[in-house]
Amino acid sequence: MERVILSLHVASCTIQAGIYHLMMANAMRHLDALPNIVMYVDAGHGGTLGWDDNRRAAANFIFQAYEIAQRPRQLRGFATNVLNYNSW
User: Fold this and answer.
1) Residue 86 lies in a domain
2) In a 10 Å sphere around its CB, with 0-12 CB exposed, 13-18 middle and 19+ buried, how is residue 20 labelled?
3) Helix 52-68 to helix 11-32 angle, to the nearest 10 degrees?
4) Mean pLDDT (whole number) for 2-20
5) N or C, which terminus of the chain has less Cβ within 10 Å?
6) What is the sign of the dihedral through the CA atoms of 64, 65, 71 and 73?
7) Which one-letter DSSP state was computed for residue 39?
8) Per the domain annotation, does 85 fall within a domain?
9) Tally of CB atoms within 10 A around 34
10) How many domains does the chain have?
């Protein structure tokens, strides 16, 4: 079974992905402008990242938001298994 990151094969999810990139980039840009801020991006959980065919897609998806945000200096890394926590 082929797994697709964030259901991007569904039209409404594709629209939401674009909105996600813009809003995430906006948040990163605004936070990056503040002093004493350290950011970590929620990168997903094992249900999304636990498959070989999803890891590269997930990394590219997050990198696109980072690029749109003009590579914020205060971004330090990623946190996983934050939302929709699972035991894997």
Assistant:
1) no
2) middle
3) 50
4) 67
5) N
6) negative
7) E
8) no
9) 8
10) 1
d(C-alpha 22, C-alpha 19), whole Å: 5
Which phi-psi region, left, alpha or beta, contains residue 68 (left: φ > 0; alpha: ψ -120 to 50)?
alpha
Contact 41, 62 (CB under 8 A): yes
The tokens for 23 are 């809003």
Q: How many CA atoms lie within 13 A of 67 on its CB side?
A: 6
Grade residue 74 by pLDDT with cuts at 50, 70 and 90. very high
Q: Strand locations in 1-88, DSSP E? A: 39-42, 75-79
Beta strands 75-79 and 39-42 are parallel
Q: What is the identity of the amino acid at 25?
A: A
Dig out the tokens for 28 from the structure: 């990163």
Please name which of 39, 66, 61 lies closest in space to residue 49, comparing C-alpha atoms.
61
- 88 in a structural domain: no
